[in-house]
Amino acid sequence: MSAIPQDFVRKTAQVSEAITRPFPGSRKIHVTGSRPDIRVPMREITLAPTRMGEGVEHNPPVTVYDTSGPYSDPEVKINLLQGLPSVRGAWIEARGDTEVLSGPSSRYGQARAEDPELAHLRFAHIRAPRRARSGHNITQMHYARRGIVTPEMEFVAIRENCRLREMREDPRYAALLRQHPGQPLGANIPDLITPEFVRDEVAAGRAVIPANINHPELEPMIIGRNFRVKINTNIGNSSLTSSIEEEVEKLVWSCRWGGDTLMDLSTGKHIHETREWVLRNSPVPIGTVPIYQALEKVDGKAEALTWELFRDTLIEQAEQGVDYFTIHAGVLLRYVPLTANRLTGIVSRGGSIMAKWCLAHHQENFLYTHFREICEIMQAYDVAFSLGDGLRPGSLADANDAAQFAELETLGELTQVAWEHDVQVMIEGPGHVPLHKVKENVDKELLDCFEAPFYTLGPLVTDIAPAYDHITSGIGAANIGWYGTAMLCYVTPKEHLGLPNKADVRDGIITYRIAAHAADLAKGFPGAQVRDNALSKARFEFRWEDQFNLSLDPERAREFHDETLPKEAHKVAHFCSMCGPHFCSMKITQDVREYAARQGVSAEEGLDQGMREKAREFVKGGARVYREV
Amino acid sequence: MSAIPQDFVRKTAQVSEAITRPFPGSRKIHVTGSRPDIRVPMREITLAPTRMGEGVEHNPPVTVYDTSGPYSDPEVKINLLQGLPSVRGAWIEARGDTEVLSGPSSRYGQARAEDPELAHLRFAHIRAPRRARSGHNITQMHYARRGIVTPEMEFVAIRENCRLREMREDPRYAALLRQHPGQPLGANIPDLITPEFVRDEVAAGRAVIPANINHPELEPMIIGRNFRVKINTNIGNSSLTSSIEEEVEKLVWSCRWGGDTLMDLSTGKHIHETREWVLRNSPVPIGTVPIYQALEKVDGKAEALTWELFRDTLIEQAEQGVDYFTIHAGVLLRYVPLTANRLTGIVSRGGSIMAKWCLAHHQENFLYTHFREICEIMQAYDVAFSLGDGLRPGSLADANDAAQFAELETLGELTQVAWEHDVQVMIEGPGHVPLHKVKENVDKELLDCFEAPFYTLGPLVTDIAPAYDHITSGIGAANIGWYGTAMLCYVTPKEHLGLPNKADVRDGIITYRIAAHAADLAKGFPGAQVRDNALSKARFEFRWEDQFNLSLDPERAREFHDETLPKEAHKVAHFCSMCGPHFCSMKITQDVREYAARQGVSAEEGLDQGMREKAREFVKGGARVYREV
C-alpha cells in the first residue's frame, strides 16, 4: 500500500477479463417485476438438443441464481472508478423518509475526507451519506411490520424463484421439475416465494434483507431459513499483505463464483478507503466487524477502547453503506471465566478483544450496556445485526460448552431488544463441532433466538485436517444448512494456516455452494433439483459441453476433462476416459434402454412378452457392448 | 505398455523417495501381540514441549493408525521385484488346513504363466498358489464361528485400539483423552477392542477381515460398523492410459495417504500381470471386479460371457491373492425394466454388463444362478464378497428407487447363502443420494442384509459439481459413515471427467480420511478425539511444527503456511498470517488466561473476588493486546 496513484487508476478502472468473462453457454437475463425498475438478474444456461438415432429432442434452458452482479453483464460498461450503477437509489428516495446529509457525521469520516495525504487512495465519487429523517424508522423490518411490500422484497421474491412459475407452466420442464420431497425439519417453505411471504418472514424476524440505504448499488437478497441457503465469503488485508486493488479484485472474484454476501475483515491501514472502494463496486451486501477498526484507532490496545470511539466507528461505516455489522455484545464479563478451562480458550478476534476489555476494566462489555444506542444508530441506516459469537469453540473439545451456550442465550435477549427497534438480526454460530453435535446448535439457536436467521462458520467436523478445512467445514455446513441455518460463512483451504489467495477463495466458495445446495435439496426447496436433473441428463446423454456449462465451476470441469481427453472430438464422443471407447456403462445402458423400447417394453409391463425370441434376434444381429471407433 | 523390460526393472525395483519418505516428526513403531510374530504397525508422532513463561510441559507422543505398510519403515529395504515380506505366511501354514498347489488351476492362469511373450512383464517371484484342503473351511468367518481367535483377529484388535489402553494408564494423556460421548445410532462399540470382540463380530457377519490365504503380505484390517470407518481407493489402467509401474506407484501412494483397501479396476491389457505386481507389493487388501476381466476375455461382448469363463476368472484371481470380489449377483432379469424410466439408467459397469447379458439371453443372471458355486470357490481361498450394487443410482433423481432397493433385498438373500458357506460378505451401496435420503440407505441395508458391513461410494449429495465430486461425495460419506456404513469408497475430483492423477488420488484420500474420522467422532469411537485434541492444543500454543505433523497431510499444511509466512522464524512466532503480529486472538486469549490465573480465578469461582482492584493494576501496568516484534 505504498503510493500507487497512477498504477492504481490504470489497474482498477477495469477488472480483468479473466474474472468477468461470461461462463460458456450462459447469458445474463433480467426478470422484470411489477414495475420496470425491478429487474432481477439471473443466468440462463442454453443446452444442446438430445440426439437419439434420427430424432432430436430440444432441451430447454436452465435458469440459475446469479450473484455475479453487473460484472457478468456485457451491456454494462464496468468502471471501478465510477462504481456500479444504482439499483435501489430511486426506491429509497421515493420513500421520502430519509435525508441526504451535507457530509459524514462521524468524526473519523470527516477527518479522513479532509486528509490530503489520502487523496490518491480515495474513491473519487463519494456521495453524501443518507440517514433516516428524525422520527422515521426506515428498516425493511419496519416496513414489513407495517404491511408494506418494498421493491427490495419483491426483488428477492423473484430472485428466489429463479423462474419456477414459468417452468411449471411450460411442459418442456415437466421431467426436470421432478424432485424428492424434502425433509424440512421445521422449516416452512412455500410452494412459490411471493413478495408477501418475504414481507411476513422479515416482519417475523425469520429473515433478513441486509440493505443499508447508503448502499444503493446492492442487488437485494434475503437470508432466512425458508429461503435458499446463502453463503458468505471473507476478504480483508492484514497488516502483512494486500492492497486496495487486490481487495476489489477479490470482491469481484467472490461474486463470480457465488458468494452471496461478503465481509471485509481488513485490519491493515486504509481500511476506511478500502471499504469505500469495495462498497461502491459491490452488488452484494457487505458486512464488517467494526471493533476491528476501532481497535486500529487505539493502536491495538483493547483496554483503551471506549463507547464513544466505537459509536463513531459505527456511524462512519454505516454512512459508507455497510449492510451488516458483527457486534460481539454477548461476551459478558461473567462468561469469560467459563473459557478458562477450555482447550483453545477464546478464538474469535472480536470475542477476545471484548474479553480483554471486560477483564481490564472489570466492567460489563460496553457493547452490551450500550446496546440500545447501537440499535438506534443501525436503525437510522438500516444496518442489520450479525450478533457475533465471541465465545465460539475453537476446537471440537470446546464445542457446545457452557461458555458458548451462555453467550447464545444472551444473543437471544439482545435479539428482542433489536427487534423492539425494528432492526434486523442474524445470529452467528460456530466453528468447530463434531458431526453429531451440530444439530443441537441449530435447535438451541432457533429456540433461544426466536428463529432469527442463523449464520455459521462451517462448522468444522474435525480438527485434524489443516489445508483441507474447506472440506472439514463443508461437511458441517451442508448438515447445519439442512438443519435450519440460513447462511454459511465459507472457510478456505488456508484456514488456520495463512491468507487465502484467489485459488483458495474459489475452492472455498464452490465447496460452500455445494454445501448450500445440498441443504436446499434436503429441505426440499422448490425447483432446487432442476439443475441436478439437467446436468445428470446431459451426463447420461454424453452432452459434455452441457455437463460443463451446468456445473458450479464450468472452467475447472472442462479443464479436468481435457487433461485426459484433450481433443475437441472427444467432447462429442459417446464415451469418456474412465472406461475408454470399448467399455462404457453409460453407453451400455443406452443400448439396453433402446433395446427395451424396441420390444415395446415399459417398466410397468415387465419383459416377459415375446422377449425370448427377440433376444435371440438381438444376439444373432451381433449386438456388442462396445462399438468400433 | 510397450516393451519395457530394462526400464521397468530399473524404475520399479524401488519406489521413489517422494512417496515413501517418512512424515516429519513421525516414526514407525510396532506393537507386539501375544506372540512375537504379531507385530502391528503404527505411526508415532513426537511433539515439542509447551513453553509458558519459564515453565516447560512435555507433550506425550500421539499414535495414529498407519496404512502405509513397510514402505514407511526405514528398517525394511523395499525391492518391488521381490515383493513385500510375508506377514501371515506362518500363520496360514500353521493352521494346517491348506495345501500348496503345483501351479495355477485356472486355465487362464496357466496360459499366462506359459506365454513367453509375457516374460518381460511377469513378476519373477510367483509363488505356487495355496488352497483349502478338501473338506476344510479356512475362512476367518469359519474360525470365528468355531470360537477361534486367529492371529489376524488379534492383529486387527491391537490395530484398532492404537495404544488406547496404554494411554489410559498414562496420566499424561488424561486431557487428550477427553471426548464427546458419541451418538452411535445403533452401533455397539466397546470401550476397548479385544480379540474376542473381533471374533464375535466376524462370526456374526457384522465385520469382515479380507485376507486371502494367497496374500500373505497383507497387514490385516477389519471392516465393520463397530470398528473405525475405513476407506477404499481405486486404481486401474484403462485401454487409454497407464502402465504396470504406474499402478504399483499408485498403490504405494494410496497406502501413504491412508487408503485402507484398494480396488484394482484395470480394464486394459495385461491386467493379470499388473494384478500380480500389485498384490505382491500390497500391504492392504486388494479387491477386484472379476466381470471386468471376464469381459476382456470375450472382447467386450457381454452376451458372450459364460459361467465357465467367469468361474475360471474367479479361480485365476483368487489364486493370485485377491482379497475381495465385487460380484453383481443381484442384478436380476426382472429388475432391469425398473431402470427404464430412470433419468440415468444403469451406471454401474458391472450392472450394465449383467443387464445386457440378461436381456440378450432372456435368462436369469448367471452370477445369481451359480451363486452357491461362487461361494464354494471363494471359501477355498477366503475371498470375501463385496456384493455389487449394479443398479445403484447415477443421479439424485434415481436415488432410493424401486430398482435400487429391489436389488438390495436380493443382496440380503445372497448374504445368507454366503454365510451358509462361512464366506465373508460386504454390501455395496450408492452412489448419488440427496442428504436427507442417505440414512434410509443404511437403515434398509442393515435390515435387509442382516448387518453385513455396508460399503458405499460416497454418496454424492448433489450432481452439479463435477471437478469437486470428492467434496460432494465427502459430505455424503461422512454422514453415511456416522449412520453405520463400515467402509467408504473414495471419489476423486476427476470423477465423471477423467482418470485421476496422483494429485487427485491424494485429494480424494484425504477427503475420505476426513469423512471417516468425522464419522468415528460422531459414533464415539474410543480415543478418536485424541489427535484432534493434540492438534488443537498445538494450534492454540503456536506449536506450528506439531500442528503440521499431527495433520492428515503434513506436507500440504506446511506448504500452505509457508506461502504466506515462509521464514523459518515464523514457525515459532506467536502469531500467524491471518492477523499479523499485532493482532492475534489466540495470543489475546492466552493473556486472558494467564491474567485470570494470576488472580487465582477458576471457572468455578468466577471473577468477582477482588478483581476490580487487580484490573486497575493491569491497566496501569500497560497491558497491551499486542506486543512489539
Automatic annotation (TrEMBL), chains A, B:
<keyword id="KW-0456">Lyase</keyword>
<protein>
    <recommendedName>
        <fullName>Phosphomethylpyrimidine synthase</fullName>
        <ecNumber>4.1.99.17</ecNumber>
    </recommendedName>
</protein>
<feature type="binding site">
    <location>
        <position position="576"/>
    </location>
    <ligand>
        <name>[4Fe-4S] cluster</name>
    </ligand>
</feature>
<dbReference type="GO" id="GO:0009229">
    <property type="term" value="P:thiamine diphosphate biosynthetic process"/>
</dbReference>
<comment type="subunit">
    <text>Homodimer.</text>
</comment>
<feature type="binding site">
    <location>
        <position position="328"/>
    </location>
    <ligand>
        <name>substrate</name>
    </ligand>
</feature>
<dbReference type="GO" id="GO:0009228">
    <property type="term" value="P:thiamine biosynthetic process"/>
</dbReference>
<dbReference type="InterPro" id="IPR038521">
    <property type="entry name" value="ThiC/Bza_core_dom"/>
</dbReference>
<feature type="binding site">
    <location>
        <position position="455"/>
    </location>
    <ligand>
        <name>substrate</name>
    </ligand>
</feature>
<keyword id="KW-0408">Iron</keyword>
<dbReference type="GO" id="GO:0070284">
    <property type="term" value="F:phosphomethylpyrimidine synthase activity"/>
</dbReference>
<dbReference type="GO" id="GO:0008270">
    <property type="term" value="F:zinc ion binding"/>
</dbReference>
<keyword id="KW-0784">Thiamine biosynthesis</keyword>
<comment type="pathway">
    <text>Cofactor biosynthesis; thiamine diphosphate biosynthesis.</text>
</comment>
<dbReference type="GO" id="GO:0051539">
    <property type="term" value="F:4 iron, 4 sulfur cluster binding"/>
</dbReference>
<keyword id="KW-0862">Zinc</keyword>
<keyword id="KW-0949">S-adenosyl-L-methionine</keyword>
<dbReference type="Pfam" id="PF13667">
    <property type="entry name" value="ThiC-associated"/>
</dbReference>
<feature type="domain" description="ThiC-associated">
    <location>
        <begin position="22"/>
        <end position="99"/>
    </location>
</feature>
<dbReference type="Pfam" id="PF01964">
    <property type="entry name" value="ThiC_Rad_SAM"/>
</dbReference>
<dbReference type="InterPro" id="IPR002817">
    <property type="entry name" value="ThiC/BzaA/B"/>
</dbReference>
<feature type="binding site">
    <location>
        <position position="263"/>
    </location>
    <ligand>
        <name>substrate</name>
    </ligand>
</feature>
<feature type="binding site">
    <location>
        <position position="432"/>
    </location>
    <ligand>
        <name>Zn(2+)</name>
    </ligand>
</feature>
<keyword id="KW-0411">Iron-sulfur</keyword>
<keyword id="KW-0004">4Fe-4S</keyword>
<keyword id="KW-0479">Metal-binding</keyword>
<feature type="binding site">
    <location>
        <position position="584"/>
    </location>
    <ligand>
        <name>[4Fe-4S] cluster</name>
    </ligand>
</feature>
<dbReference type="InterPro" id="IPR037509">
    <property type="entry name" value="ThiC"/>
</dbReference>
<feature type="binding site">
    <location>
        <position position="579"/>
    </location>
    <ligand>
        <name>[4Fe-4S] cluster</name>
    </ligand>
</feature>
<comment type="similarity">
    <text>Belongs to the ThiC family.</text>
</comment>
<dbReference type="InterPro" id="IPR025747">
    <property type="entry name" value="ThiC-associated_dom"/>
</dbReference>
<comment type="function">
    <text>Catalyzes the synthesis of the hydroxymethylpyrimidine phosphate (HMP-P) moiety of thiamine from aminoimidazole ribotide (AIR) in a radical S-adenosyl-L-methionine (SAM)-dependent reaction.</text>
</comment>
<feature type="binding site">
    <location>
        <position position="496"/>
    </location>
    <ligand>
        <name>Zn(2+)</name>
    </ligand>
</feature>
<feature type="binding site">
    <location>
        <position position="428"/>
    </location>
    <ligand>
        <name>substrate</name>
    </ligand>
</feature>
<feature type="binding site">
    <location>
        <begin position="348"/>
        <end position="350"/>
    </location>
    <ligand>
        <name>substrate</name>
    </ligand>
</feature>
<dbReference type="GO" id="GO:0005829">
    <property type="term" value="C:cytosol"/>
</dbReference>
<feature type="binding site">
    <location>
        <begin position="389"/>
        <end position="392"/>
    </location>
    <ligand>
        <name>substrate</name>
    </ligand>
</feature>
<feature type="binding site">
    <location>
        <position position="292"/>
    </location>
    <ligand>
        <name>substrate</name>
    </ligand>
</feature>
<feature type="binding site">
    <location>
        <position position="234"/>
    </location>
    <ligand>
        <name>substrate</name>
    </ligand>
</feature>
